[in-house]
């Protein structure tokens, strides 16, 4: 009889921990997506997650797909970099500030298109533009969506990239 009570007690603890773990995941920004280039999916991509407090994490995208769970209330830079160094690195910035009253943070689907160095051959003096994030995304709590907070900046960056023949 005591074994059954202990077993029941153990199951209750495990179940409570799983619920708590799920709550913690719901309180993060879930970003899922894929990494492409001109020929389809890019394999062997590292996603570097740079937090505003100096913490750096790295996740590897398997078969061109990735899943990220970012902490809220940080400014985070995502850097998508091909391990073979045949592509230019692409950066996206997120401000993950979300009001405490938000019950569920919406998932963000993000497809990244990496630019092949061999295909585009950008001049060395023009490569600096590729060091900048192509977008700065933040959460609109009224609409419940993620959006590009600085569209004018993004247009300037993307226009310059288009002038190189990219996109």
Characterize the structure shown:
- A six-stranded mixed beta sheet has the order 4-3-6-7-9-10, with no helix packed on it.
- It has helices at 2-26, 117-120, 151-163, and strands at 28-37, 40-41, 45-51, 56-61, 65-71, 75-82, 90-95, 108-113, 136-140, 145-148.
- The longest helix has 25 residues, at 2-26.
- The chain has three helices and ten strands, in the order H-E-E-E-E-E-E-E-E-H-E-E-H.
- The chain has one domain (29-163): Immunoglobulin-like (Sandwich), CATH 2.60.40.1120.
- The protein is globular.
What attributes characterize this protein structure?
single chain; 167 residues; alpha+beta; Immunoglobulin-like; six-stranded mixed β-sheet; four-stranded mixed β-sheet; 10 strands
- Compressed to H and E, one letter per element, the order equals HEEEEEEEEHEEH
Do you know the CATH topology? Immunoglobulin-like
Secondary structure tally: strands? 10
Could you give the distance between the termini? 69 Å
Q: CATH homologous superfamily?
A: Carboxypeptidase-like, regulatory domain
| Total of domains | 1
Mean pLDDT, to the nearest integer, reads: 79
CATH architectural name: Sandwich
SS summary, helix count? 3
The percent range for strand residues is 35-45%
The value of Rg in angstroms is 20 Å
| Main sheet record | 6 strands, mixed
Helix share bin: 25-40%
Which residues form runs of ≥5 with pLDDT under 50?
16-25
Question: What is the 3D shape?
Answer: globular
CATH class descriptor: Mainly Beta
Strand order of the largest sheet: 4-3-6-7-9-10
Instruction: Specify the structural class.
Output: alpha+beta
| Oligomeric state of the chains in view | single chain
């Amino acid at each position: 009889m005591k074994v059954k009570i202990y077993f029941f007690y153990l199951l209750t603890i495990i179940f409570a921990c799983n619920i708590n773990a799920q709550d913690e995941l719901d309180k993060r920004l879930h970003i899922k997506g894929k990494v492409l280039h001109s020929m389809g999916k890019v394999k062997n991509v590292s996603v570097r997650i740079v937090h505003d407090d100096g913490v750096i994490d790295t996740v590897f995208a398997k078969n061109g797909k990735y899943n990220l769970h970012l902490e809220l209330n940080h400014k985070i830079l995502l850097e998508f970099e091909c391990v073979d160094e045949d592509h230019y690195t692409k950066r996206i910035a997120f401000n993950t500030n979300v009001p405490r009253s938000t019950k569920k943070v919406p998932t963000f689907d993000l497809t990244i298109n990496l630019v092949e160095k061999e295909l585009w051959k950008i001049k060395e003096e023009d490569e600096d533009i590729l060091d900048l994030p192509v977008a700065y995304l933040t959460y609109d709590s009224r609409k419940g969506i993620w959006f590009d907070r600085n569209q004018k900046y993004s247009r300037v960056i993307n226009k310059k990239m288009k002038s190189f023949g990219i996109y």
